[in-house]
Amino acid sequence: MGTLHLSKFSSQANPEILNTLRQIAEVEGKKFHAVLDEAFRDFLNKKGATTPNRQVMTSFAQSLHEFEDLYKELAK
Known about the structure:
By secondary structure, the chain is an all-alpha fold. The chain is built from four helices and no strands. It is elongated, with a radius of gyration of 19 Å.
């Protein structure tokens, strides 16, 4: 997996929510930013604002090309 590049930002949030996120990070043995990133991704998925992973889409396209005849037969 590639190197993860993080961007610092400043914002405000409900203290109860932040404390709960910190507790989840501690219980799961994760860093706070990893839990926050997961929460952001879940929110974006919920809003339909995500883009497909490039590697997944490349593999999908290769699969379509390689197994085109099989997929057509299965669709019948």
